[in-house]
Amino acid sequence: MPLISCSLSMASPYELPEIEAIFMETKALCSEDNGMLWGRTLDVPILLVDKENGIIYSNRPSEKLGLTSYREIYTGILPDFIAVVKGPVKIENQIWAVIPLPLPSDKTERQCILLHEAFHCLQPEMDLKPEPYSNQHLDEMEARFWLKLEWKALELALKNEGENKRQAITDAICFRFYRRALYSKCTGCENRFEIHEGLAEYTAQKICRTDSDLKLYLQDKLHEIWQSTSFVNCFAYFSGPVYAYLLDGTETNWRLNLGASDDIAILVQSAYDIALPFDIYMEAEERSVLYNGAQIMGEELDREMAFNK
């Protein structure tokens, strides 16, 4: 194929060698993983879209997209049929990861974005593409309160080992069960969000970071997400990766039979051989004191009052 014209390459804020380097980073990470995480490669067709300048870049050739080659990558004009929205798109019987530019300058951050979207492309063939979900209940005060307690217990589980870790996991699951008893119709939606987005985020972070870096990242992520005005569309980006990380600390091959509607916390409970207390709800209320429950409830009451003004 002919070399892309100079006029096209000059129109974009990215130089072609920069795009090539980004794709080579992705390919190297996928080669290093070599399908070990999920039994298949994350080296999928990717389309980086510069909407402002109407340019697309890819790691795969495509006649339908009208791409021309530049060494190891391909580029062309953004066609009308490509919606510039992050996510999987089917083109020529293949699923492509469409990702708008610009990307973060930090290598780990940008590769996490690419591999997160790459995992979404694989989910349908792994039967991990969930039914639609909505978690609007997580804007309610009590739901946020028990979710925050679950997160605090998960944070403690990350920091501890042995029996202290098991107790923190037990507390997290008790807090989780309490919340879901209050909002019993929403359990499936929470599970599907954690499988869909939580595991995509876990996969990206797992491949891009060392184990110790991943643990620190998850702790930092909690502090970041804690301040969110709404948890509806973000809670799974912490809870999903943390539960998956805890599963990785066991000898179970948990990914092998994972389903799109599974409760990943139940998998953790089983992997750690945890027997929940007879009265989960009383246990949750009593244990909440150890996680600054009164302070957290105060935060949520203040938030509720501010929103109702």
Strand content: 5-15%
- Tell me the strand order in the biggest sheet: 3-4-2-1-6-5
Shape: elongated
The residue ranges in which pLDDT falls below 50 over 5 or more consecutive positions are 1-11
Mean of the pLDDT scores?
A: 93
Largest sheet: 6 strands, mixed
Number of helices: 11
Whole-number total of structural domains: 2
N-to-C span: 63 Å
Secondary-structure-derived class: alpha+beta
Helix content: 40-55%
How many whole angstroms does the radius of gyration measure?
A: 22 Å
User: What is the H-and-E element order?
Assistant: HHEEEEEEHHHHHHHHH
Folded structure, characterized:
The protein has 309 residues and is α+β, with helices and mostly antiparallel strands. The protein folds into two domains: 6-122, no CATH class; 136-307, no CATH class. It contains eleven helices and six strands. The protein has helices at 6-11, 16-33, 107-122, 141-159, 162-182, 187-208, 211-226, 236-248, 264-271, 280-287, 293-307; strands spanning 46-50, 55-58, 68-70, 73-77, 87-91, 94-100. A six-stranded mixed beta sheet has the order 3-4-2-1-6-5. Strand 1 (46-50) and strand 2 form a beta hairpin. Helix 4 runs parallel beside helix 8. The protein is elongated and about 65 Å long. The N and C termini lie far apart (63 Å). The model is unreliable at 1-11 (pLDDT under 50).
Summarize the structure.
This protein has 309 residues and is of the alpha+beta class. Helix content is 52%, strand content 9%.
Secondary-structure topology with pairs:
Blueprint: H1 6-11, H2 16-33, E1 46-50, E2 55-58, E3 68-70, E4 73-77, E5 87-91, E6 94-100, H3 107-122, H4 141-159, H5 162-182, H6 187-208, H7 211-226, H8 236-248, H9 264-271, H10 280-287, H11 293-307
Parallel strand pairs: 1-6
Antiparallel strand pairs: 1-2, 2-4, 3-4, 5-6
